[in-house]
Amino acid sequence: MRDRPSSHLITGIVLRALAAHPDHRGTGAAIAAARLLGSRLWQADRYADRRAAGFWQKFRYPFRFTDLVSALDAMQLAGLGSGDEALTRGLDWLAGRQGDDGLWRTPYDKAADREIHAWVSFAIARLFHRAGLSSARSRRAGTSSRGGRPASSGPA
């Protein structure tokens, strides 16, 4: 019996492991964990060390903690499809924040890895590719890479 609330930080880390293993990805447990994590996007964690909702926007690569990019990545790999509402909202949010140079910025400008923006942008580009979109710009334009059909805009 669980007597403590779920932590999206830990749920995201465990989901990454489930999604990486071929015997566990796509299982009921992996899908349930992905949906739980998706329901927590942009919310403050229930535990003090990740309480601020702003942690969702502190992207790192390779993934170390649960942020929006690592959560969407794990949710996709776990088996949630592009029609999932949380994935749609996350991709829409990311599409609106791509820089004119094609990169996404992370607040870790002074990180030891000077290429952090390129690595984070690589991880985000993979999200759009897995969703069947050629780029975030096609997401903003409302077309997919599959014949120019409108992409789901998701909830407001």
Provide structural commentary:
With 156 residues, the protein is mainly α. It has one domain. Helices cover 44% and strands 0% of the residues. It has helices at residues 8-20, 28-39, 68-78, 85-95, 116-130, 136-141. The radius of gyration is 15 Å and the shape is globular.
Write out key terms for the chains shown.
6 helices; 0% strand; single chain; 156 residues; mainly alpha
* Biggest beta-sheet profile: none
How far apart are the first and last residues' alpha carbons, in Å?
Answer: 36 Å
Radius of gyration: 15 Å
Number of strands: 0
Q: How much is the average pLDDT?
A: 83
Q: Domains counted in the coordinates: how many?
A: 1
The secondary-structure element order is HHHHHH
- Uncertain residue ranges: 144-156
Secondary structure class reads mainly alpha
Question: Number of DSSP helices?
Answer: 6
Shape: globular
Relative helix content: 40-55%
The fraction of residues in strands falls at under 5%
Q: What is the subunit organization of this protein?
A: single chain
Outline the fold blueprint:
Layout: H1 8-20, H2 28-39, H3 68-78, H4 85-95, H5 116-130, H6 136-141
Brief synopsis:
This protein is mostly helical and 156 residues long. The protein is 44% helix and 0% strand. The longest helix is centred in the last third of the chain and has 15 residues, at 116-130.
